[in-house]
Amino acid sequence: MNAYLDHAATTPLLDCAREAMVGALGHTGNASSLHAAGRASRRRTEESREAIADALGVSPHAVIFTAGGTEADNLAVKGIWWARTARDPSRRRILTTRIEHHAVLDAVHWLGEHEGAEVVWLEVDASGRVDVEQLRTELEAQPGSTALVAVMWANNEVGTVQPIAQIADACKQAGVPLHVDAVQAVGSIPVDAALPDSMAFSAHKLGGPLGVGALIARRRLDLAPLTHGGGQERQVRSGTVDVPSIVGFAAAVEHMLAGIEDRARRTAALRDSLLAGIQAVAPEAIVNGAVGGVDARVPGNAHLSFPGCENDALMMLLDSAGVEASTGSACSAGVPEPSHVLLAMGIDPAQARSSLRFSLGHTSTPADVEALLAALPTALDRAGRAGQVRAGGQLAAAGRTGS
Ligand code: PLP
């Protein structure tokens, strides 16, 4: 069996979620229909909403079901921006970071290009942690012109956890709504969902099904809809709700949030053994991201650069040896791009292109770590030689051009 070390991309479905979904799939009924079958579907949806709200310590009214994290982020960023600028057109600023997931980053860019939003980039330090003082200064300077602040809870590439309590406090003082992308945090570390004004998360990152997620949105948060239609989900997310997925999502949230501290401790211990093992077989490897407990870095994340190796080659070599990891960065038109997250942290492009993410989750075992450590020396050796050949070829080509 392959060693799956890509839980941050998606993590296996929990048995309890599968069973709950299989049960729900056997029932017909649109949750908006008024007959008995519809009412039964509505009841399952509302029970799931309550279970998720209870597990997170928020009101059921705050839970808006979406088709995943991307949609929840888009609904928050665009929905808050449209609602706030409709009330006061002078609120055109969005304060955010360059390390956000594309679900936030591209929504912000889109608002900049098409709606005239002014984007203010908050700096992050070398570990990927946001500068709260800069946020306070920006908010104090122009609170009235800011539509929203968007900062992720935990980064999907390097796992750095942001000081959300301090960020929420700064936003509250300024009276500016805060959206938090908590897709990599919920189910991995304890989160206080009452801190932000809105919070996105996704079922498939915590043992639930693919294609369902939620936005937790405070009752009085102004939110314009992205989809128009039947008026489901507080009139901001029209569309027939996916009852079986929602039922599976709720089962996964309840399971993952019960005993989260113990699971986080166990996962962090396994991750630390993975890091120690890599440093023993590849002392040249550089660990990227924050160091510390679960308030600094999510427990399942290990992110390293392997100088002299191209990460795509290394990933494919590990894959052929049965070890599944991730480069974490986008590939545009077949050309690997250095990760925008690593560049924002001040890491140079060559180091960024040599980086891999290993992410552990609820099914990870010491055998997964052992499989990686067994495969890594050969993969590094081959990727390193391929890198030398490539560099040699480039030098030769440059020499030919010059002569
Ligand atoms: N935000 C973060 C931080 C993520 O890691 C991801 C997925 O990788 C998303 C948003 C998007 O979530 P989904 O896959 O549910 O659309």
Description:
With 403 residues, the protein is an alpha/beta fold. It is 44% helix and 13% strand. The chain contains 12 helices and 14 strands. The protein has helices spanning 15-25, 36-56, 69-87, 102-115, 132-141, 164-174, 243-257, 260-281, 311-320, 340-344, 349-352, 366-402, and strands at residues 3-4, 63-66, 93-97, 118-122, 146-150, 178-181, 198-202, 213-217, 286-287, 301-305, 323-324, 331-332, 335-336, 355-359. A 7-stranded mixed β-sheet has the order 2-8-7-6-5-3-4, sandwiched between helices. The radius of gyration is 22 Å and the shape is globular. The termini are far apart. Residues 68-70, 73, 101, 103, 152, 156, 181, 183-184, 202, 213 line the site of pyridoxal-5'-phosphate.
Secondary structure layout plus pairing:
Elements: E1 3-4, H1 15-25, H2 36-56, E2 63-66, H3 69-87, E3 93-97, H4 102-115, E4 118-122, H5 132-141, E5 146-150, H6 164-174, E6 178-181, E7 198-202, E8 213-217, H7 243-257, H8 260-281, E9 286-287, E10 301-305, H9 311-320, E11 323-324, E12 331-332, E13 335-336, H10 340-344, H11 349-352, E14 355-359, H12 366-402
Helix pairs in contact: 1-7, 2-7, 3-4, 5-6, 8-12, 9-12
The structure holds pyridoxal-5'-phosphate.
Pyridoxal-5'-phosphate binds next to helix 3.
In short:
The chain is globular, with a radius of gyration of 22 Å. A hairpin with a 2-residue loop joins strand 12 and strand 13 (335-336).
